[in-house]
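Friendly challenge for the regulars: who can give me the structure tokens for this chain first? No prize, just bragging rights.
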Amino acid sequence: DLIADYRDIFRDMVLSTCYVIENLMPLLPAYPELGPSVARAMELWWGVFHGPQAVDTLRMLFPNPYDYLLIVSRTLVSLRAYLDQPLIRWGAAYIHRKMASQQVRQVEPADTVNIKKALKNWIQFDLEKPPEQLRLGMSDSNVVRIRPRICNPMQPEDDSFRLHIPNADSLVVKYGPIEEIDRERENYERLPQAIKEYFVNIPQPSYLDEHQRRAYVIMADLGRYRTLYEALQKVPQIHNILVDELGPFLLRIHQGDGRHRRYVQEGLLMQLYLLPMQQHIRNIFGYILENKLLENTDKQKYAPGLQRALLEKIGHLVRRQLDLEAFPVACMHGDLHTRNIMVRRLKRRENLDRQEELEFKLIDLEKFRRSGDAALDIGELLVDLELLRAPRNIAADRDPVFSLMKAIEDAYAAFTADREDATFPIRVQLAQARSLIRIAKGRTKQGGVALRESRKGPAIRIAFDALNDAGQALEYLKQVVETLG
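First reply, four minutes later:
Bragging rights claimed.
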């Protein structure tokens, strides 16, 4: 797991070891005292991967094809230098044994390959109805539900001859830029084994559109699950259970493999919080001011002052970032809101050996980090819950959303005390400011579409909403600065 976080450093260390062995071996006749050191260097690297699973081990350590090829090549060169004889003398016997033990396998005739292609073209498939949009997040990826219709070509009009695939009456397709889909897939592979079951599996893309640079991934439909957003609005029967079980679930995610506590790398606060906020603020106010969306309104002078105040607070935090960076890192989802948390109530027969009544799954792994900040996730989720709660106008003592927010805050108070993370509450406020600024920036994407369609009225309303989000973010930043002193 540590190698996954420091793979580049580990690769350079291995390459350096190989180069040292390769260049020192010719000197051994003149300097025999180098022998024990060279032997230890070779044994150290050889001991990492040797054995019957050597290839699998190397591929796990270096999943990037270029890195894998480079490491194998340099290892073979250094091994040749270390043994001082051609490697074929060592490998020939192994190759002969493998060839003798293998059964002779017939090469598939070209006709068989073509028959399989013909069979694929013969099967008729379509969609029962147009794709159903499931979610519109802030990324450029889309998620839709489809209901495939697969017909027997010999009886295409007779529904009784339709072909049924078990557990595939409905499927989910995620599609978007190849880079985003690949990043999500890579992040899924990097999940600690202890928490992998809590995330939705991200398979390899089923189709790549090279022209538009888009990848299409077909996944199982979580039809039995609801988003947390839906559950809070439409399933009052589980509200009390959500209050009890969501906090412990999130703690398991942030604890990851639960092994060693590691502290933040220098610059992580800037990378996660301050730099994204600066970039989003430029985009927000560029959209508002450059398009002159506040002319002849009472907000015309307010907007530049708000922009200046936000940047001043962030500038202050840049100078004080070292005061906030001494915190233990945690596994971090990176985009934790109510539409990325899936939940379902377990049936009695599924709950025999479990104390929990609910099962949770997290989706959307584009921004996952093994070495992140739990405070960022919690701040973002609290903002989303507050936005969900605000229009409801329900007294706090009767509002399940408020109760859920309080339960999460209580759970993480104990979590941070155990981890001796004194600045966690301050970073939660910083994360809340970041989340509101990100929401405002997301609104400007919608506003840009409205302007391109010559709909200035909606674009102006979006500008006012974005200003409101930015104003709330400023209040959180003021609290952070005031707490730091």
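The chain has three domains: 2-101, 110-220, 226-484. Residues 424-452 form the longest helix (29 residues). Your move, everyone else.
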